[in-house]
Amino acid sequence: MxxxxxxxxxxxxxxxxxxxxxxxxxxxACGTPHTTVGMPAKAAAxxxxxxxxxxxxxxxxxxxxxxxxxxxxxxxxANNLSYSTANSSQLNGMSETTLKGYKLLIVPGGNxxxxxxxxxxxxxxxxxxxxxNDGLHYLGICAGGFFGGxxxxxxxxxxxxxxxxxxxNYGNGIKKxxxxxxxxxSGKLDQYWQDGPQFSGWGSIVGxxxxxxxxxxxGSSGKGWVILSGVHAEAPASWRTGMTFTTSVAVDNAYAGTxxxxxxxxxxxxxx
Length: 272
Known about the structure:
CATH superfamily: Class I glutamine amidotransferase (GATase) domain
Strand content: 15-25%
Helix content: 25-40%
Mean pLDDT: 88
CATH topology: Rossmann fold
Number of helices: 9
Number of domains: 1
C-alpha cells in the first residue's frame, strides 16, 4: 500500500533534498564494484531492431556500472530469460508505446543522479506512464532503487512522491560489505551491499536490514508491479574480495533470479 505524505514528511523531504544537493553521491550511488572475473558466459541480448521483442529491457546506459549490468545479464542467462539492452540514447528514443511492449524494465546499480541527468525528462515521463498506465513492470537494484522513487534528479517517481535515503549501516562508514538480510520465508541471507538505499515509506517489505529498515520492497504502481532492492543479490564472487559471507554466491544469485522472476511475472513475494 502506498504511504501518504504528511506535512512532517514534506518538511523532512525538503531538508534531505537540501542535504542531497550538497552530498549527492552519498544518497544515490552504489559505487563501482570490482570488474567481474570468471563469470559464466552470458546469454546474447536480443537486438533492439529485431523482429522479436524480448520480455525484459535491461538499461545499461550512462550512470550504470558495467559490472552491475554484466552481473544482471548472467542471472538472466541462468534463468533462460529473453532480454534486450538499451543505453541512454536508445532509451531516450523510445516512446511510451515502445516501452509498454516489454514486460519488465531493469535498472541496475551505478549512480542514480548520473542516470537521471543523462535521460530526457520526456523519457522518464514515458517510463513512468508505461508503468502506471500500461502495466510495464520495474525492478530497480541499488541505484535503480533510488531512481525508481521520487527524486529531483529526474527520477521515475513510481512511489507517489516517496523518496529514499541510503541505509546508514549503523553509521560505521563502511561503503561496501556483507549485510544480513532477513525475509519471512528465506531466513537470513548475507548479501553484497554498497551504499544502497533503504525503502522506508513505500511498498510491502520483502527483506529487512539488520536494523529492520526495508532492504527489499514490492508493490503496485498504477497498473505496474515494482520491486526495489537496496542490495546486490546478483553479485558474483569477484565482488566479495576481502569480505566474509556466510551465504554462498550460488544461494544469493538464486535469490536474484527469484527477484527478477517475481518482477517479471507480477508475483508477490512473502513479505512482512
